[in-house]
Amino acid sequence: MAKKLAVIGAGLMGAGIAQVSAQAGYDVVLRDVTDEALTRGTDGIKASYDKFVAKGKLDAADAEQALARITPTTAFDAVADADIIVEAVFERVDVKREIFAELDRLAKDDAILATNTSAIPITKIAAATSRPEQVVGTHFFSPVPMMALCELVRGQRTSDETLAAARGYAEAVGKTCVVVNRDVAGFVTTRLISALIVEAVKLHESGVATAEDIDTACRLGFGHAMGPLATADLTGVDILMHATENIHTESQDPKFAPPESMRRMTDAGDIGRKSGQGFYQY
To answer: What 3-state class would DSSP assign to 198?
Structure first.
């Protein structure tokens, strides 16, 4: 099994992917553009390991060894000997394509190039490389250490071998996989949650019901673990707005157009738990 992994982006998702991978025995290079971003990422990983240790879910020695397997760096060429490279940066196709063009230049010939995008078609990202058959979507869920799902997405030219390698990796870090065989914007999960969240926001902004009651209806009526507006706050209203915009741009389906209040909340910085204010106060 491939044991060398590189993660591009040390934010919440990238750090989480690095954390579960190191815990599963992978040697991980965690790359970001600034030392500050890397410090935030590695501090978050250590704090998460400490919580697992305190709850008796992880041995302290194992946590220490896992943390030691993560090498933070600002050097892009540190990805050169990785068997699998997972990109986990901001949801903008131009940013991702730029990164994949650089990965195409730096990564070894047989490396798997994976993107953690939740909404951008894999084919668009893969087209920035000379090896689109080695590009695959590995869509993890937040918080990565807690969420059991990984959505594997085939681009137009993703090979069976690449998909199998991506599945092997995701299962090795403890995830259950679903496979998206057609590269539609938003895949399966983001299309479903975006449609639900957009409708929930419309009901809320038009005064039909409170955020609490909309979420309670989904939890108790449909068995959801968390309501759509609480989910938006957890994920980030801004992140979900960009995801729905990507799906809307690609599909031209009006049900994915972000509601006005979602745009204004993003403009104001009221983007959920990370800002202290979203559909709820934190």
So the answer is: helix
- What's the CA gap between 13 and 184, in Å, rounded? 22
**CA–centroid distance for 226 within its chain:** 18
Look at strands 135-140 and 112-115 and give their pairing: parallel
How high is the pLDDT of residue 175? 98
pLDDT at 185: 87
Neighbour-count burial of 70, counting CB atoms closer than 10 A to its CB (0-12 exposed, 13-18 middle, 19+ buried): buried
| Global pTM exceeds 0.70 | yes
132's tokens: 């689109």
CB contact at 8 A, 240 and 257 = no
Angle between helices 211-222 and 189-205 (to 10 degrees): 140
Beta bridge partners, 115, equal: 87, 137
Number of Cβ within 10 Å of residue 63's Cβ equals: 21
**Alpha-carbon distance values, 171 to 81, 151, 244 (Å):** 22, 11, 28
Specify whether the CB–CB gap between 180 and 188 falls below 8 A.
yes
Under 8 Å CB-to-CB from 69, ≥6 apart: which residues? Answer: 22, 25, 26, 27, 28
How deeply is 268 buried, as exposed, middle or buried, from its count of CB atoms within 10 A (0-12, 13-18, 19+)?
exposed
User: Which pLDDT belongs to residue 136?
Assistant: 98
What is the Cα–Cα distance from 26 to 102, expressed in whole angstroms? 23
Token pair, residue 115, equals 């993107």
Give the Cβ contact number of residue 222 at 10 Å. 9
pLDDT number for residue 2: 60
What does the block give as tokens for 171?
Answer: 């299962």
At residue 224, the 3 state secondary structure works out as coil
**Residues lower than pLDDT 50 in the chain:** none
- Measured between its terminal Cα atoms, the distance across the chain in Å is 43
Measured CA distances, 244 to 98, 187, 195 (Å): 22, 12, 8
